[in-house]
Amino acid sequence: MTRRKPRAKPHRPGTSGRSRGTGGPLWLYGTHAVTAALENPARVQVRLLATREAAERVKGHAPEICGREAIESVLPPGATHQGLALATRPLPQRPLEDLLDTAGEKALAVVLDQVTDPQNVGAILRSAAVFGAAAVVLPERNTAPESGALAKAASGALEAVPLVRVANLARALETLKEAGFWRVGLEAEADATIETAPLDGRAALVMGAEGTGLRRLTREHCDLLVRLPMPENAVGSLNVSAAAAVALYEAALHRN
What we know:
Layout: E1 19-22, E2 26-29, H1 31-38, E3 45-50, E4 64-65, H2 68-72, E5 84-88, H3 96-102, E6 108-113, H4 118-130, E7 135-139, H5 148-154, E8 163-166, H6 169-178, E9 182-186, E10 192-193, E11 203-208, H7 216-220, E12 224-227, H8 240-255
Parallel strand pairs: 3-4, 6-7, 6-11, 7-8, 9-11, 9-12, 10-12
Antiparallel strand pairs: 2-5, 3-5
């Protein structure tokens, strides 16, 4: 008698793409996130699920062919998986000091102060990859963890740009200073605009969470505070991921 293959266990709400709380594997989903992870030798692959149609996008690998319901059972409700899901382990953590030792003379970093939305962190990673940033630095606590939602928003950039988590953000900013980085904090109420910032050499763009902005200690560890140039009659403001994209573009102009 042929034994039926057990159905994948359902995802528990609030696990952000892990199958069993924080101790289970990390589930990545969506074409860009999964294919980029499969090409990353640092990724430990546990299980690859694909619909018959989506399996064409992961040629060279051997996915478990299944229906959309089986994939949805291991993912957060409403996850846009495009027929692909990969169970993996979080990427190995790389110390900030090691990364700075190999960074170039014009290395650019993005530092995030308690940005908790995985969609925002993922979008910032995507912009960082486009504009050639060396790393995105963020604290271990009170920030978005590595998750399927973050990887989906990053659209493959999670595999390309190191996401460096540090125990103490103020100490990390001191480490950046010692490595020759100008620490440029973005503040909506700053007097100077970003065009005046020294972004042509080693620089770190320091950004805070929406609403609260940079914390006092973080501001004190910046060399200067700048704002994005906005029209006086501007309606509303940019969210942190959009502001990061603009700041990274400005930094790219300085370098070119």
